[in-house]
Structure to design on (133 residues):
């Protein structure tokens, strides 16, 4: 079995070296393009992770914050972008098993200049769970 693998590897090496520099480059570019194409289309979950995060800096009993980033794809004053952000918030809360009876956005504010914001989000929303104590 190992001898077969070694023969196959030698054959592949000879085939690539027989292509020359230009052929080898084209082969590698084709493989790279195939790898990128195989990764699939962008999903809403990708955007949720890219443009938002859920934070509980004081632990499970403290406030819940939803941090958002505005972009050309999801501008600040766009109703469709707002609907997407609320869907992301619902997704984060479901993932963390928070607010099973619903939630309300209590406040929205921009991040303060000196506030800890390593992801450089634009705004922080405070979220209150409905039916919470």
């Amino acid at each position: 079995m190992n001898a077969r693998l070694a023969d196959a590897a030698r054959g592949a090496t000879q085939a690539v070296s027989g292509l020359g520099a230009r052929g080898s480059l084209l082969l590698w570019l084709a493989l790279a393009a195939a790898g990128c194409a195989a990764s699939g289309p962008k999903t809403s979950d990708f955007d949720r992770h890219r443009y938002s995060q859920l934070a509980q800096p004081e632990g499970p009993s403290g406030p819940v914050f939803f941090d958002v980033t505005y972009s050309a794809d999801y501008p600040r004053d766009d109703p469709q972008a707002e609907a997407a952000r609320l869907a992301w918030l619902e997704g984060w809360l479901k993932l963390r098993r928070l607010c099973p009876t619903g939630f309300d956005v209590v406040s929205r504010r921009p991040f303060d200049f000196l506030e800890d914001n390593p992801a450089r989000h634009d705004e922080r929303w405070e979220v209150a769970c409905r039916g919470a104590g």
Q: What stands out?
A: The CA atoms of residues 47 and 60 lie 25 Å apart. The chain has two domains: 1-39, 44-129. The chain has a mean pLDDT of 80. Helices lie at 2-38, 44-51, 79-95.
